[in-house]
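Tutorial, part two.
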Amino acid sequence: MARATRGGRIAIGAFVAIIATCMIVGNLPDKYPAVRRVSGVTHHVVDTVGCRQVWRVFAPPRNEVLALEAVVTFDNGSTARHSMRYPSLTIETQQRRLKAC
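Running the prediction step on this input gives:
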């Protein structure tokens, strides 16, 4: 079995640190100028390594409303329609709630 060398441990540690930093910077909002400057490089590094993470599930509220609609046709030819709107906190609603505080 090969023994780990000091240089090998340093190289692996640096690789892990660079990837972790790129993943963290890649998930920061683009409103920061420094993030915009390095986002191309960080996205390229993370994509190359295969560590892309999309955190939009936990992102700020969206402006669009998602809905699901189903139409069921029964054997006798009658139909039933069901619609469901997914609850979401739009930016306007969030702003109103913040003003109320």
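The chain has a mean pLDDT of 80. In part three we will examine how such features are distributed along the chain.
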